[in-house]
Amino acid sequence: MSDGADQENIEGTTLVEGSKNFSGWVDSCVADINSRIVALMDEAIDVATVFWDFRYCENCKRRGKFKHTSKLGVRVRNKGKYYTIEWFYNEIVKDKKGKYIPVSHYLKKGTNKSVYSDSTLIRRCQPWEVEMVLEIEKRLAFYRETYSVLVAVRRDLNKLQKVIRERNKGDDSNKV
Q1: Is position 46 within any domain?
Q2: Are 7 and 14 in contact (CB under 8 A)?
Q3: Could you give the CA distance from residue 132 to residue 74 in angstroms, rounded to a whole number?
Q4: Whole-angstrom Cα distance, residue 107 to residue 91?
Q5: What is the full DSSP assignment across 80-124?
Q6: What is the number of structural domains in the chain?
Q7: Helix and strand tally (H, E) in the chain?
Q8: Mean pLDDT of all residues in 56-84
Q9: Percentages of the chain per state (helix, strand, coil), in multiples of 5
Q10: Would residue 6 count as lying in a domain?
Q11: Domain that residue 28 falls in
Q12: Which of the 8 DSSP states describes residue 145?
C-alpha cells in the first residue's frame, strides 16, 4: 500500500489535492444535517401535539374539577442555534395584586440527559394521563437522542471544515 492510499477521495485525487472539493462535500453534509434536524423537530412537535390534543379533551371532561385536570405540559422549542424538548408543570399562584396566575416549572431529567424518568413524570401526572405521558415521553426520548447525535456529527464536521480551511489558507499563502 502506498503512503497516500488512505488519503484518496471519491474523485481519485488525494484529500490534500482535492480539499476544495472535499470542503464542498463537508458543507453539503452540514446543510443536510441541518435540514434533517428541522424535519426531526417538526416530527417531535407532531408528537407533542398528540399529547396536547389528548390533554385538552380530557381536561374538558373535568371542567370545574380543577384539582383533577392536567397541569403537565411538553414543549419543543427552537432556541436559535439549538432545540429543546422539555416537560413542565403549571402551578397556580397568587400574585402581589391578589390575581391567580400560572407559573411554569421545568421537570428535571435524570442522569441520562435524553430521557425523563418515569417517576419524575408520574409524580406530576393525574392518574388518567400516566399511560399517555409515558408513551409520549418514550417517543420524545428518541427525538432527543437522535438530535443529540446529529448535533455531535455536525460539530465534528464543522471542526473538519475548519481544518480544511486552515490547510487551504496555508496552501494559498505558499503561492507567489
Answers
A1: yes
A2: yes
A3: 12
A4: 13
A5: SS-EEEEEEEEEEEE-TTS-EEEEEEEPPP-SSTT---HHHHHHH
A6: 1
A7: 3, 3
A8: 87
A9: 60, 15, 25
A10: no
A11: 17-162
A12: H
> Is the distance from CB of 56 to CB of 63 less than 8 angstroms?
no
State pTM to two decimals.
0.78
Cβ-in-10-Å burial (0-12, 13-18, 19+) of 116 comes to buried
* DSSP designation for 66: G
Per-residue pLDDT, averaged over 146-165, amounts to 93
What does the pLDDT read at residue 39?
Answer: 96
Q: Mean pLDDT over all residues of the chain?
A: 85
Residues 93, 12 contacting (CB under 8 angstroms): no
> What 8-state DSSP symbol labels residue 128?
G
Q: Helix axis angle, 130-174 relative to 19-61, nearest 10°? A: 160
- Average the pLDDT over 117-139 and give the result: 95
**Cα–Cα dist 62/68, whole Å:** 7
Confidence of residue 135 (pLDDT cuts 50, 70, 90): very high
For residue 84, what are the CA distances in angstroms to 106, 115, 121? 12, 12, 17
Whether residue 107 lies inside any domain: the answer is yes
Does 11 map to a domain?
Answer: no
Is residue 6 packed enough to be buried (19+ CB in 10 Å), middle (13-18) or exposed (0-12)? Answer: exposed
The neighbouring-strand residues paired with 87 are 74
Q: Give the strand order in the sheet containing 83-94.
A: 72-78, 83-94, 100-106
